[in-house]
Description:
The structure holds two protein chains of two kinds.
Chain A: E1 5-10, H1 13-21, E2 30-33, E3 42-45, H2 47-50, H3 60-66, E4 71-73, H4 77-91, E5 98-102, E6 105-109, H5 114-117, H6 120-135, E7 139-144, H7 147-156, E8 162-164, H8 170-175, H9 187-195, H10 201-206, H11 209-216, H12 218-227, E9 243-254, H13 257-277, E10 280-290, E11 296-307, H14 310-321, H15 326-329, E12 331-343, E13 348-349, H16 355-374, H17 382-385, H18 389-392
Parallel strand pairs in A: 2-4, 7-8
Antiparallel strand pairs in A: 1-6, 1-7, 2-3, 5-6, 9-12, 10-11, 10-12
Helix pairs in contact in A: 4-6, 11-12, 13-14
Chain B: E1 2-6, H1 7-16, E2 32-38, E3 41-47, E4 51-58, E5 60-63, E6 65-70, H2 71-80, E7 85-90, E8 95-100, E9 103-108, E10 127-130, H3 131-142, E11 156-164, E12 167-175, E13 179-186, E14 198-201, H4 202-213, E15 218-224, E16 227-232, E17 235-240, E18 259-264, H5 265-276, E19 285-291, E20 294-301, E21 305-312, E22 320-325, H6 326-335, E23 340-345, E24 352-356, E25 362-366, E26 369-370
Antiparallel strand pairs in B: 1-5, 1-7, 2-3, 2-6, 3-4, 4-17, 7-8, 8-9, 10-15, 11-12, 11-14, 12-13, 13-25, 15-16, 16-17, 18-23, 19-20, 19-22, 20-21, 23-24, 24-25
Amino acid sequence: MTRKIIHIDMDAFYAAVEQRDNPALKGLPVIVGGDAQKRGVVSAASYEARVFGVHSAMPTSQARRLCPQGIFLPVRMRRYQEISEQILAILKEYTPLIEPLSLDESFLDVTGSEKLFGPPVKIAREIKRRIYEATGLTASAGIAPNKFLAKIASDLKKPDGLVEIKPEEVQDFLRDLPISKLWGVGKATEEVLKGMGILTVGQLAGYPPQAIEKRLGKFGLDLIALSRGKDDRPVIPSSETKSISQEETFTPDLHDLETIKKFLLDQSERVGWELRRQRLKGHTVHLKVRYPDFNLVTRSATLPLPTDQGIEIYQTAINLLNKTDALKKKARLLGVGVSNLSRRDDLKQLSLFDSGRKKVERSTEVVDRIRDKFGPDAIKRASLLEKDDEEVGR
Amino acid sequence: MEFNINKEEFVKGLFRVQNIVEKKGTMPILLNVLLDAQGRDLSITATNLEVGLKGIHPAEIIKEGRATLSGKKLYEVIKELPEKKISLKLKENQWVEIFSGKSLFNIMGLSADSFPSLPVFEEEDFIEADLVVFKEMIEKTLFAVSSDETRHNLTGVFFLQKTEGEEKTLKMVATDGYRLSMIDRPLNTVVKGLENGILLPKKGLAELSKLLEEGGEKIWIKMKNNNFIVKKDGVVLIMRLLDSEFPDYRQVIPLKTKRHIRIKRSQFMESLKRVSILSSEKTKGVKFHFSQDTLELTAYNPELGEAKEEIEVEYKGEDIKVGFNARFFLEVLNILKSDDVFLDLEDGISPSIIRPDNDEKHTCVVMPMRI
């Protein structure tokens, strides 16, 4: 049976919230992000700022050069969370199958909702209207038979867009799409495919799967499925969060220990932050390494007590690193995650001797408060500061 | 080697070493026991290089000599033999023939020359100690030892001899970082090498405890290099000390606390057992709410539901709520044999003390859980 998936994506969310809260900013180039002095990056740019070439994940210092007249504002995570929850409440009225990807975008599976609320286009239009009425913000919606296409569709007519890709239109739609639009294709994979003369999704779909598999491994087969419009991944409601993770693909491949350590620390800290934000703790730490030959290995270890501390996740990840060949073979992708999650509301066992651990937790609390106020990149470990701003951006 | 031995005696000797011989491993010889027939005795030796045990058993020696056989298989065979009298004979190429009544077994062994020898020690300087007391000390501390191999220094029991004026006491302390148990018992002879304390491995103490279960009145102990040696009639057990520094346990035992509570032990245990059924599987957290002469225990599990129970206690003071891991408490309450226990509390985040009402020399500390 054909599924009906809607992807709702808020337009320039953080910047739009700022403009809504302070109407004087309406029509002005608003740029929300970290401090340029501290190598911060842009988290969101209003459409007025995008005209100047400013986009998210760009170093704030660069944004200042491109758009000197921009209004630069710090990230107010708490506020965005509040509004995000308002939006989620609206979405929940149409289907229980909602998978939020972040504060500003969610997937909805409305396959079973048609009888109640009418066709998906009607649902999407109604959702957009109600979000606007409740928050004064615009959203773009994409409707398609699967998640991958719905996400692409929502991006096509931003801002305030609504695009539906019907099952019979899928092939035509994909043919000339650049491969970088495919899910999971970052700079590194794009290079590999371009090297093979593959520039569009249509070209990839027509390529012999064996040849792709040879270059990209199993991952290549997943890409071919996507390129043919096939994506069976279900919409997973967020209440079933089973794990929290971060991963990144690198060009060129990483091989020296210091750099690998830095990335693992950065990822571990992000995972720790996300755990604390969701009031979760993880018992099992996972390390994922993809070698240059595209083989993927994962290693995991279970801690004596569940943790939400980035530094503990990092230390475990480093131990796990020794169980891989990352240093010998180099790493194309690194990922850190935790699973075996429990609610933090559980009582927390205190320790007789670890006064050190208590100190770590107290300083983490302070760091989190700063991040809530000024954004995830407002404060970080000194060892992570040397990193290129481009890489730190999310 | 050739000898006849009584089945009961042989089974007893082999049973003792079942947990010492390795089940599998890179060194096949460690799966074996060493049988050594000399004079009028058969000695049975096993070692895993950390804990070694040698037992002497009366036997009718026909030909002196040594052999090694799989400790596990030999025990299984001997245990099942129908007759009282058992004969063993070493044949060519390390084959050993076992013969009893109408049963005949031939088992392949390994050369006794490759069996690792136990650390050598002199017979002098062994100090006599009370077996029952020693057994009690192990029993009341071993449960608190950590099983987390990454915290090496907590995987053993800290053992030392203290001298205060004329008084000398043996002290054992164990902790896993969340709870601690410490017991003192008098012993007025000096045991050399115990002044600064040693760290006895969990595994060695578990074997010793099993050995002491066999009964008797006295044991003899001695330190030699990095080994702790215990002798009991006809058996010697040697364990290698853990090479790690035990944390400063004194700093986590509060000397004075604000609140003192007296509780009926068995009632406390039963209530806690019931309530903890609904605590979270992972943390076993139970909330203790103390108010005037009352303790209310509650547990909550988002996937199951909640439980609540009230018990009478002796307490005069302000209301206080503290979280504890029910398992830590139950394990302590289980080994305290008194009618009542004292609970000394400071607040919800500092170490708390549990003591029996009849023994000032045994102190347990449990760290609370943050609510």
